[in-house]
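Its record is retained below.
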Amino acid sequence: MPLNERAYMSLPSVVPALAVAALSLAALLVCSAAQAAEPKLVVTTEPKSQPESFTVTPDGSLIIGSASKPVIYRAAKGASDAKVFIDVSAAEGAVSFLGVLADGSTNTLWACEIIGAGKNRHSILRSFDLTSAAPKFRWPLPGDINLCIRHVRMNTTWK
């Protein structure tokens, strides 16, 4: 029997093994892609935390502002729970953070802090170190409470 006939005759025995291997690899890739694409639910375990605004840091951490507490939460990439990252309750009293923006190029977290209640509320533009949470900048803004919120949410802040 010529060499090419022998190769042809052994090919049918190889095809099923190759097909099984190809299907297994395809199934593995599909399952991996589905798992990677599936978002995780990130929660805070503190009562009345009222998560309000979100931003993502260059390392993939999720930063969450709070509409009812003087804190900003951070969840590491892949984590399902957010921990307190910044807490200004001792220094500022009754505040909330309505707008956060991670600026990786300057390693800065920009935040719009609302202080006071009712008609006595005003905005303060704050910045913190994105890694250590150390305060960098604090600028009480004149005028309307929405001044800082509008600019932080539109990803344009004063620097």
Residues 18-23, 25-35, 150-159 have pLDDT under 50 and may be disordered. DSSP finds three helices and nine strands in the chain. Strands lie at 43-44, 51-56, 62-66, 71-75, 81-87, 95-103, 108-115, 122-129, 135-140. Helices lie at 3-37, 89-92, 146-153.
